[in-house]
Amino acid sequence: MMENASLYHARLDQLEDRFEGSVTKLYAENREKEHPDPHDVVRDAEPFFNRRSLSCSYVNCWHSSEFASDAMWRVYSRQNAGVAITSTLDRLQQSVILPPETDFGILGPVEYLDFENHSMIGSTGCTVRPGFAKQKSFEYEKEVRGLICINPDLEKGTITMSQEYLEQLKVEMPLGVIAKVNLIKMIDKIYTSPLSLPWFNQIVQSAADRAGLGDVVVKLNLDDDPIY
């Protein structure tokens, strides 16, 4: 990130959760009730385009919290060699430069749902968008996502709704895309792991210095002695 002033966005189908981009069971049941005719084009279109989005949507993921999380350090960093970069929604919106091939971009929180019984109607009254819905078991992540959608058919005019087309997209679309960023605008602080060693801290400091961010590096300490 600091060497190239960029954020890597991974294709949605490359993430570990196999429910990425899907809808809940209750939502699907309600959709069938609204379109009972099995030959209704609308009934088939939404599932098709949700599957299509798996190969056309790219995400960069952040953890949202006011405080450091011991669990996040343990899950998402290597022992003695972890880095956490903090930002804000405003900083991200002002600093990220979307690639020219972008159809649209979204920045917002992931909603954690019961995939059996949730209607996918969110707290605002709007339908929760696939790609921003995850199972309750991931709720500890408190995830905020930046999503970039690329339209591979911008110049084609028509799309054939077929499994062959979806398989073709999986092969043709890149596994990730890069968005350039203004690092000075985006980064608030750079924290090194509470378990990091001096040599690692120096590497991070050197990279930050080259990016003009040397004054925002902090060694995080979660191991203060208790006071009784």
Summarize the helices and strands and which ones pair or pack:
Layout lengths: L5 E6 L13 H10 L6 H16 E7 L6 H7 L6 E4 L2 H7 E2 L4 E8 L1 E3 L19 E3 L7 E8 L12 H10 L3 E6 L1 H4 L2 E4 L5 H13 L6 E3 L9
Parallel strand pairs: 6-7, 10-11
Antiparallel strand pairs: 1-2, 1-9, 2-8, 3-10, 4-9, 5-8
How does this structure look, described?
The chain is α+β, with helices and mostly antiparallel strands and 228 residues long. The chain has one domain. The protein is built from seven helices and eleven strands. It has helices at 25-34, 41-56, 70-76, 89-95, 163-172, 183-186, 198-210; strands at residues 6-11, 57-63, 83-86, 96-97, 102-109, 111-113, 133-135, 143-150, 176-181, 189-192, 217-219. The strands form three sheets. It has a six-stranded antiparallel β-sheet. The chain is globular, with a radius of gyration of 21 Å. The protein starts with 5 loop residues before the first strand and ends in a 9-residue tail after the last strand.
Shape: globular
What class, by secondary structure content? Answer: alpha+beta
Content of β-strand: 15-25%
Structural domain tally: 1
Number of helices: 7
Helix and strand run: EHHEHEHEEEEEHEHEHE
* Poorly predicted residue ranges: none
Nearest-integer average pLDDT: 90
Counting DSSP E segments of at least 2 residues, the number of strands comes to: 11
In short:
The chain is α+β, with helices and mostly antiparallel strands and 228 residues long. It is built from 7 helices and 11 strands.
Question: Key features?
Answer:
single chain; 228 residues; alpha+beta; 6-stranded antiparallel sheet; 3-stranded mixed sheet; 7 helices
